[in-house]
Amino acid sequence: HALGMVIPRGSEFHDKWIFLMGHLSETNLYVLAVSGSTLISAILFKKLLPKLPHMLLAMVVGSLVSLGIDGSNHGVTLIGELSASLPQFGFPNLTLKNVELLTPNAFAIALLGLIEAVAIARSIATKSHQNLDGNQEFIGQGLSNIVGSMFSSYAGSGSFTRSGINYQSGAKTPMSAIFAAISLALILLLVAPLTAYLPIPAMGGIILLVAYNLIDFHHIKQISSTSKPELIVLLVTFLSTLFLHLEFAIYIGVIISLIFYLQRTSKPRIVELAPNPDTSGSHFQNIDLYKNKACPQFKILRIDGSLFFGAVEHVAQYIDKIRDGDTKRVLIVMDGINFLDLAGAELLISQANKFKAKGGNLYICGLKKNVREILDKGNYTSQFGTENIFEFKEAAIRGIYTKLDKDICATCEKRVFIECKKEFES
Description:
By secondary structure, the protein is of the alpha/beta class. The protein has helices at 13-22, 29-48, 54-68, 96-128, 134-149, 160-168, 175-191, 200-213, 217-226, 228-243, 246-265, 287-290, 312-324, 342-357, 369-377, 380-384, 393-401, 406-411, 418-424, and strands at residues 269-275, 284-286, 298-304, 329-333, 361-365, 389-390. The N and C termini lie far apart (89 Å). The mean pLDDT is 84.
């Protein structure tokens, strides 16, 4: 519509570009003049007169240019006069046969429509800094399609073009869609004949501007410089939309995002802690980072992440390595665990039993309310032993210290805990 070429329908992305490059000489200069003048005037109106509806004014300019060069007689297609009538009401024919026949395809269309709508909404929300309620979007899409089916409408979903134009025009709330629908109805009834003079290339120029403005260069640059996994998701999804169908591109992007998410969450960060000697042992720090001294008889671990079925293997391997050494007692600080499932709870019981078989024990502290509720409801608390569960690190260390081998403590030179110093340095 912007160059006046007729690209074969159904062509792949690369085929379209090959066709375009090979047929540039066939560009209709009249069509290009209309689309180009519309595009340029929209940019100028936006910069010079930002308070005016620059896209609407630009389409007026495109229409005038088309009239001035007699575009209708040189390949410039006009929209044509629209029928001044509204769709008639008619309830869908919901027979059992029709429901059985249409349900599979209807489900696929609904799923694609919802995914597409949310993807578009997130794109716009990123630029407009608005919060997005996906559930509300799903409800709105469903209700609109139910009502639309009573007026012989197509299955409706989000539209990059419509949403982009709304955003570029300064729309702030969903009321813009209602006003647009009312305005369209009035246009159909009152000024439909005027559309006969609106060139399709003028609309093509506007859509080119809208498409360019939807490219979020700022966030693309930010993603490329901060997160390689997210950059991979972006590039794969982008290339998939060019060479595959849109629904497959969305599925691929979601699946790759899920893979990276599971890869990240399946290996939660495990930090070994020790008291900071500069704070009299009341503050704990990462041993690897601050080179703090560690107690030779028991270790303090902090797990940062969810302890679910995907992460239990990684955590179990880490604890097994500690238990294979001389350490018989381990305290797990769980204030960094926001979620615990049954696999995570069973891991704690299994590891506790292994430590007991070695003559030691496993202890936990700092449980969040939701984590504690899972342990209580599954009867894991009693299996683990309430005497091995503490509210704070300090209370846990005081309780565990009494169970340490005092002969080893007497010859130990590290004395990392307050209890050590009180007993052997007093």
